[in-house]
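Re: the request from the purification team.
They wanted to know what the chain is likely to look like in 3D before they choose a buffer screen. I agreed to run a prediction and write the result into the notebook, where they can find it.
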Amino acid sequence: MEPIASPFSVRKARPSDAAFVHQLVVELARYEEAEEEVTLTVHQLEADAQAGCFECTVAEDANGQVVGMALHHARYSTWKGKTWYLEDLVVTETWRGRGVGRALFESVAAHARSKFAQRLEWQVLDWNAPAIGFYKRLGADLDGKWLNGRLTAKALETMASNHEEP
């Protein structure tokens, strides 16, 4: 017997969704055992959205409750030109396995193509087997050759303070 499909819809996030989106960011960080690294506030998220720093797509249930989100933004590749980056894809635990993640991912892919992106990129932790399986089922290539570089806020400040303008 097949499970009964629960109705949901996908749409562009609205400013009123910021608290729900932030909650999902924290939920993902908790799952990734890095909750303490989330310093972003709801207010900062709202301001950055207003400034056009990213775009966000949400899934909502029949009652209008946000049950998943995909936060994404433009990138540029000197090899390919315009690309699109999926920063986070999160579905609340009770809604996983119902097609919400796939619908969000497809929406982001369609949006990326509408922006003439040559590819869609994202990261997934090497121990996150459910997410890896999800992406592989969607036909994704997962590249284990590239390492990610990062400067934390403190290291970035130190580096910037050492820079002298010509």
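For the purification team: The helical segments are 18-31, 42-50, 100-114, 129-137, 153-161.
Please add any questions underneath this entry.
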